[in-house]
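Working notes for the structural subgroup meeting. M.R. asked for a predicted model of this chain before we commit to crystallization trials. I am recording the input and output together here so anyone reviewing the notebook later can reproduce the run.

Input as submitted:
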Amino acid sequence: MLPRHAHAQGQRQVVQFTGIVATGDSLLGVPGATVFVPKAGRGTATNAYGYFSIPVLAGDSIVIRSLGYRNQYVVIPPDYPRQSYSVIVQLKEDATVLPEVRVFPYVTEKDFKRAFLALKLPKERGSRTAENLNEDILRRIFLNAPVTSMANYRQTMQMQQLDQQRRMGTAPNPYSNNPLLNPFSWLQLINQIKNGEFKKKD
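Returned structure, recorded in token form:
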């Protein structure tokens, strides 16, 4: 009985570790934050509300981390008697700027420049770009495309604005610009007839 009792005393208590991971300046949950036990090699992630739940052992050290925030550490007391342990972890933002990483499909930048300069672009005629900009195709698409409600509204507003500008005399008017309806044009024509400008010259 004594060895079994000593072995039972040596076992660590299993604790259900639960909590919410929030930002440091508010209680908004951080989704996707990892809750990891390095010694056990297992962990979990927070849900959309920042909540997590994972079984650990008394005395474990838990690392809580998320991209853009500083790591936080929680240690379960070795002599913790209860079966559950709940916390609210407030992560602080990490303002560290990562260095720029450039990925090239070439070993060196010199090889990339050489390949870029040797690149042969397709000619405009017969290329896919030229086919997409073909006037006949674009005209066919324009004539067959259904008119949306926004296009109808825009056209109506433009016609109203043009009609108002015509009334104010700031836009071309087909009626006022017609020489047959312009009295000054008639007066000029009568004067030209009187002066004999339309007579045949010998």
